[in-house]
């Protein structure tokens, strides 16, 4: 019990330092799922930081394989002696106990996140915006699906909202990290996702992680970004195009929410509903619930929409200069903006 308590405090401190928005938004996740939420986000931090911690593809692949094996063992109740794996094992055990074995965390969704992170270890370019959206779906949307499972919830409506919000968050995160990837610091053991290297360090090769079709349309050349940074021709136009796609997903989610709260239906189908892990035969509760009830129960999990919208608003205020220092910190308004949004059930 003492080890578990110490691990919880250590992971909370890590969350606050390296993923401050998620730490703040934890408040709005139902208490029964908060431990799972922190464990899932800590897992994401560890896997995402592998790219920063090593420039050797073989070592990176080995660390990803460690996480595949760690997830298998953690969900089976025999985690390795690794803090995040122990937290995940505890979250999985608690979920099964609360639901009498009817609900569980999906191994395949954890594996999807790992596989996608490994695919982009060496910063290959996104060929188009659709590829960037797929990346966001397979990482940030999937983290939301896992958190919904921890409630537990198996709801097409909640997953549909989570998909749009996760895509918006993933796309915005790629934009936020663009300076860091273009001008990478030397490899380090810990990664601050919000911290940007100001200059290329250690001779590491940078990359401009914008979709190639968007760069071509805007006339952006990678070597000009390396030389001129924010003043590279066409860069702000390209960032605007990508940010608009993220904003579109948030607008869609808000329209869905408004329609559901008014007693209506959504205007389009959930494109991922036929995937294996999206199963909606039961909600793992004593009685079936309506889409409106599902949204009410899931709302706290969907709160990343607030932080993402705030960052996109700040990006617009600096005229889509993704290198602006004003974008490198968490907005001080996030706690009260989140409180306002949660109480009014608006993103």
UniProtKB/TrEMBL annotation:
Keywords in alphabetical order: Membrane, Mitochondrion, Mitochondrion inner membrane, Transit peptide
Residue numbers spanned by region Disordered: 262-291
Polar residues biased stretches: 280-291
Gene3D superfamilies assigned: Farnesyl Diphosphate Synthase
GO biological process, one term: mitochondrial respiratory chain complex I assembly
Name of the protein this chain belongs to: Phytoene synthase
Family of this protein: Belongs to the NDUFAF6 family.
GO cellular component: mitochondrial inner membrane
The UniProt record lists the keyword Kinase: no
Location(s), subcellular: Mitochondrion inner membrane
Matching SUPFAM superfamilies: Terpenoid synthases
Superkingdom to which the source organism belongs: Eukaryota
